[in-house]
Amino acid sequence: MNRTPGEGDSLKKAMNAAYRILSLRARSEEELREKLQTKGFNHSLIDEVISSMREKSYVNDSDFAQNLARYLLRNRSYGLIRIAEELRKKGIPSEIIRNTMSGLKGEVDEKEMVIHSLKVRLRGSDYSRMGEREKKRIVDYLYRKGFPLSKIYEVLKSKNRNSCEDDRE
User: Fold this and answer.
1) Is the pLDDT of residue 169 over 80?
2) Nearest-angstrom CA–CA distance, 59 and 64
3) Quick one: how many helices (H) and strands (E) in the chain?
4) Does 77 or 9 have the greater pLDDT score?
5) CATH: 1.10.260, 1.10.10, 1.25.40, 3.40.630. Which one for 5-55?
6) Contact criterion met (CB below 8 Å) for 153 and 110
7) Contact 65, 84 (CB under 8 A)
8) DSSP state of 3
9) Above pLDDT 70, what percent of the chain?
10) Which pLDDT score, from 0 to 100, does residue 168 have?
11) Cα(59)–Cα(36) distance, rounded to whole angstroms?
């Protein structure tokens, strides 16, 4: 492509800006596009930079989605619903989100994740002895973490049953 001298400088500036942005942390294509737009680069230049970054494997939405999903799963204890929402917020295409989530479903036991998050939240408190307002807060907390209500209630029902059985002994 023939460029005027000013266009070559703009491309170099845009590439350098992209390198700086990506040196801080991995980003999705959409995030990189937004950052470059806020720096005032035009759309055609941004498309060229992103294409170059994709060719060099500096930007890869599929890898980014898998890494972020695993991080959110392991380090934040998010449920699959919340992970999918976080990927959507990062501008990951729907097809990549579907593929990432189907890969995670095979690795994850959501019921165990709910139990773990509940233990962390309760910190030794007895769920069955809590008032309705406190119980609702716990359900809301688990729901915000991205767990389906069916799993939350399944775990909480077993918590109530186990606690009642303990009382009878």
Assistant:
1) no
2) 8
3) 9, 0
4) 77
5) 1.10.10
6) no
7) no
8) -
9) 89
10) 36
11) 14
For 152-164, letters b (16+ CB in 10 Å) and e give: beebbeebeeeee
Dig out the tokens for 33 from the structure.
């596009």
Q: Where are the domains of the chain?
A: 5-55, 61-105, 110-168
Tens-digit pLDDT profile for residues 114-133: 999 999 999 888 888 889 99
**What type of residue is 75?**
N
Neighbours of 68 (CB within 10 A): 18
Q: Give pLDDT tens digits for 12-54.
A: 999 999 999 999 999 999 999 999 999 999 999 999 999 999 9
Q: Quickly count: other Cβ atoms within 10 Å of residue 1's Cβ.
A: 5
134 CB contacts (<8 Å, ≥6 apart)?
Answer: none
The Cα 65–Cα 22 span in angstroms is 15
- Residue 106, token pair as written in the block: 């095979």
Asked whether the beta carbons of 159 and 118 are under 8 A apart, the reply is yes
Using only the alpha carbons of the chain, give its radius of gyration: 23
